[in-house]
Amino acid sequence: MSVLSVLKERGFIEDLTHTEALEDYLTHNRATCYIGFDPTASSLHVGSLVCIMALAHMQRHGHRPIALVGGGTGLIGDPSGKTELRKVITLEQIDENKKGIRNQLSRFLDFSDDKALLLDNAQWLTKLEYIPFLRDIGRHFSVNRMIKAESYKARMDSEDGLTFIEFNYMLLQAYDFMQLGSSYDCFLQMGGSDQWGNIVAGIDLVRRTLGKQAYGITFPLITTASGIKMGKTHKGAVWLDAQRFSPYEYYQFWVNADDADVERFLALFTFLPMEEIHQVSHLEGADLNKAKAVLAYEATKICHGEDEALKALQASVSMFGGIEIAATLLPGSSIPRGTHSAAGEESVPSTSYNKNDIVGKRLIIDLFMETNLCKSKSDARRLVQQGGAYVNDNRVAGVDQMVLESDAKADEILLRAGKKKYHKIILD
RNA sequence: GGUGGGGUUCCCGAGUGGUCAAAGGGAUCAGACUGUAAAUCUGACGGCUCAGCCUUCGGAGGUUCAAAUCCUCCCCCCACCA
Question: How far is the CA of A238 from the C1' of B4 (A)?
Fold first, then answer.
């Protein structure tokens, strides 16, 4: 089965150029393909996961993926300040971020032996000179055409307007494609559906300057069933970096997926066979929850490794109760089968305290605040007043409740805010 | 550069001297119901030494017993014109 069919079947394809020629190109070549990533943060987040998984599928089919970090574009930023993502950042910062990004990507892609590349467009963009750029590249672009691009049209009509810098991103990205084409033999660019205009512009530029046929694929914008952009939560982005977003939280993120999203997410974010995934559509109620556990397990495994996935599963079980994974449910998954009951290690966020400093001395709401379960004392107070604060699964009765000796069993205190947020206090 | 319109609590958006910690909606959080889902209902939603107090309405000053609301200067945004 060709990559293209696989990607199509799993829901990756929004649009593509030259359908037949591309299919042909991919079957007869070890193709090099690229996707651009933003280096403004030291970590990628779930929003980029579709792109990453697509690259992984490419690699699995013997093609060579390139992850292009936009270090050059990051150096420009965007003065309109409308898009948070385009902040000006320093070279050092970009280097730092690149390290983090490479680290994360290496969980999904094999960078050894030239099997995948991580490049930075600063390599060529910072060398550009304005006049030659205008003469050699700018001449190929028609402003008339550019402003017809969906991404620009919206901005042209909106009050926010469009800065010249943003307007130029299309040229720069097309230039990237051209560079990758001539230096790395890369003639396939992929990206989110908002990149369509930029990708097509690149294809044109490649044809005009290198005389080569290039291709493009865009992915759909993944939204949750409730219409929210994938990977955005109340807390902000769902990071792939374990430091910023623990494997346990990551696991929880997937378990909390909407019913209607489970099948789609399994297809996009795991490597489980599609025949198995289709079975999920028959499930409902508690059984569907088990499928969510598999989704969470697999997704966590891919991103953080099997050990962490297992820990997260166990932590989840000890928090929310046992779960039985039947052998027939998504058999391709390596999730341990059988009944999982509360036991074993947990990987719930924890903080250490000196027992003598706490017991009988501190208010419980203070602990909620200090462990970041609540963002202010008023917040903690509210939580208690509304009955959402728990210590070792006992509801906290009043805002002036102290930590008691009886709370400190086994030198641990389990704090809970609402139904899903836990924090463990470890007493020394 | 000119003219006009704006900058309000996470977002949108009311408010034009006291009754304003500031309507309404969204988002979010908690409770109930559930399946760690969705929908629905209820409540909360600046901070604190919490039935009281303190700090907020682009920034800095000023008028007033009293300012988000009036005045001055500054910063920023938008539209049209050049």
Answer: 44
What is the interface pTM, i.e. ipTM, of the complex?
Answer: 0.86
Q: Which tens digits make up the pLDDT trace of A356-408?
A: 888 888 889 999 998 889 989 999 999 999 999 999 888 998 888 888 888 88
Question: Of chain A residues 372-411, which have a beta carbon within 7 Å of strand B?
Answer: 375-379, 381-383, 386-388
Which of the listed CATH numbers 3.90.400.10, 2.170.130.30, 3.10.290.10, 3.40.50.2300 matches domain A350-427? 3.10.290.10
Quick one: which of A349, A351, A353, A348 has its CA closest to A427? A353
What are the structural domain ranges in chain A?
A: 3-219, 246-340, 350-427
Q: What element of type H or E holds A288?
A: helix A286-304
Architecture of domain A3-219: 3-Layer(aba) Sandwich (3.40)
Protein-contacted positions of strand B (CB under 7 Å): 27-32, 34-39, 43-50, 77-79
In Å, what is the separation between the CA of A359 and the C1' of B51? 30
- Estimate in Å the CA A376 to C1' B69 gap, whole number: 31
A224 touches strand B (CB under 7 A): no
Tens digit of each residue's pLDDT (9 = 90 or more) over A140-175: 998 888 888 877 777 776 666 677 877 888 899 999
Look at residue A223 in the predicted model and tell me its pLDDT: 82
Q: What are the CA-CA distances from residue A58 to residues A27, A53, A106, A117, A129 (Å)?
A: 12, 9, 14, 13, 35
Q: How far is the CA of A166 from the C1' of B72 (A)?
A: 38
Dist CA A420 CA A388 (whole Å): 10
